What does this fold into?
Amino acid sequence: MKLFETLSAPILRAYPALEASDLAFAPPPKLDMGDLAMRTFEAARKLKMPPAQLADQIVAEVAFGPEVAAVRAAGPYVNFKLDRSVFGREIVEDIVNQGDHFGSSGTGTGLTALVEHTSINPNASPHVGRARNAMIGDSLVRLLRFEKYEVEVHYYVNDMGRQIALLALVCDDPSTKTFDEMLHLYVQANRRAEEDPEFAAQAYALLAKMEEGDTETRDRLFAVTELCLHGQLMVLARLGVKYDVFVRESKYVKDPRLDVLLQALRDRGALFTDEEERLVVDLKQLGYEQDEGRYFVLMRANGSSLYGYRDLPYTIDKAERGANLNIIVLGEDHKLYAEQLRRILATIDKAAPEPVYYAYILLKEGKMSTRQGKVILLSEFLDEATARAAAKVKEQCTDLAEKEQQAIAAKVAVAAVRFAILRVGPNKNVIFDWETSLSFTGDTGPYVQYSCARIASILRKYGELPATLPEGFPIETDEEWALLIKLSSLPDVIQAALEQRASAPVAQFCIETARLFTAFYHACPVLNAPSEAQKRARAHLCGATHQCLKNALGLLGIEALDRM
It folds into this structure.
């Protein structure tokens, strides 16, 4: 960003030991303190001097250009008073020139990433709780691709789990069932398995036959899995979630890399058969010191394998692809499992993927549960969200055809659910509430979309913006400047989001930008500006704001709307 380069370049010349990353710029708490502030903690630490002393030296010794009106020290901070018109024009010009790429620093250029997310057991329709995995993973993929990483997205299909075997037992012909019926079938089958050990044993026997290569059993489980997977993908597609590679768990039952791993475990004295004739890993022999999770079961007494046995070669497979980043999105209750996998893989010097953990979406009654049938299905939620959005759109867009109104309503619904979930950091629970999620005011996706629509309306009335910005670019109010400084922060926001593996900073940027635009809108007339120069500058500021919101919303999987 030219704004920061103009200020940092003289400082870096005066202090050659420093780098641009050592200088942190941000708006001061109050604009009467200055137009921009720089904290000196990081730079002072590198220079081995007190931050306040460094701030005083910069003010006294560094020569800035004429566009810097005044420089003052305030403890460890350096406050700049700037020629807002010069810097404001540079900020908008930078946004205009980069367009859809503004905010990207290109940190992933020439690098690759593999991201596994969602991977729902194919036994039911996704519910809102599980959709958090998909949305976190999808937004992370969008961030990586925006930063120029080449990304491959994996969906690991559990086609050999107990859930699928239970469904196959109660669903002889999947072609006669709809996907929505699967949740009810699974709840019934799971209850029966809990009450009837013999029925549960039949499911495990079916899995054993699958591993033995029985063709009829394989086809039976495949049909159930395909129906469920297709249904899941149809629902997730409504949120704009897509995948590149679908990997079936059954592929890894006879993987030769397991033999190498098992031998390494034997050599460490970590593999044994327990009193129930199960094949088990003793993690204590691998340096694991806790009692909980010490034993990791690989195979049952009947010779059928457990999920972890098949997940190990898949995880090795991912590691051997050699991606610069290898990431998996997991619920927080998988932390122990991930640590167990990491310990086991270390015996053959294979790295486990970097986990991104998330807390759960809670109903007012507590955690959602597929087994108990206590869920809000994502498809039903999106239907309800779309219906409520349609009512709002119909009120506000009476001049649009019904088909166009419906299209807008569907996009507003996606914004409602994605924004409500992604604005909360992954490590925090989301308390699910219909009214809050679907509100068209406050800190919501629809509110940000409405800001975009308002800007688009102004620009339609203004007419086409010239490709070249005018030399005269008056910035005369705090509302204009506050909005400009916020827009200039988008590259740093995106870097923070990528480092945190979380989209919450991007969502917060959207909220704050929408609020600042509202303040600007009320304080600074655009079409009826006092002068033609102000009218042009404010129109360009509107265009830059729309571009930044469009880019940021895109990282959240939300479309910026021009009509709403």
